[in-house]
Specification:
Blueprint (H helix, E strand, L loop, with lengths): L5 E2 L5 E5 L5 H10 L1 E2 L5 E8 L1 H9 L7 H15 L3 E8 L2 H12 L3 E5 L5 H7 L2 H8 L3 E5 L5
Parallel strand pairs: 1-3, 2-4, 2-6, 4-5, 6-7
Helix pairs in contact: 4-6
Length: 148
């Protein structure tokens, strides 16, 4: 570590999984702490879960097209970085899709946030980050909100 930044020259491709929660900004800040090579490829991804799609469809209020909104948010993150990057917005189970994308792109690192679920909520909703850590073929950085 030098000057608070992490230097990792072996990272050629990084998958950054964002979900629009408050932890998204922390995930982006974590990514910005790496001193990456200009050739590093960043894959920004968002998984629209079946639950998320169903709840939007049932909402009794107008809402923007989530695909376009998410794409715009991910493009803003892309613009903040000086690296090659791609966008992936997919539908499905978040943990399964994150791992699938990691395998497709042969990523060296996955960065994602933790929702901080505990107790019964963690049992009922499951932990995406725990499943990704357990099943990914590469290193995984889970960014947690420490409350500061």
């Amino acid at each position: 570590l030098s000057s608070g930044r992490i230097t990792l020259s072996v990272l050629k491709t990084i998958l950054v999984a964002v979900d629009g929660s408050p932890s998204t900004e922390l995930v982006i800040q974590a990514l910005e702490q790496f001193q990456l090579q200009p050739t590093t490829n960043i894959i920004f991804s968002h998984v629209i879960s079946a639950q998320e799609s169903d709840s939007e469809a049932l909402a009794d209020r107008p809402h923007p097209d989530s695909g376009e909104f998410l794409q715009e948010q991910l493009r803003l993150y892309q613009d903040k970085l000086d690296f090659r990057s791609e966008l992936e917005i997919v539908h499905g189970d978040p943990a399964v899709e994150i791992i699938r994308l990691a395998n497709i792109y042969k990523v060296d690192l996955i960065i994602l946030g933790s929702r901080g679920l505990t107790g019964l909520n963690r049992i009922l909703q499951g932990s995406v980050s725990a499943q990704v850590v357990a099943e990914a073929h590469c290193s995984v950085l889970v960014v947690k909100d420490n409350g500061d």
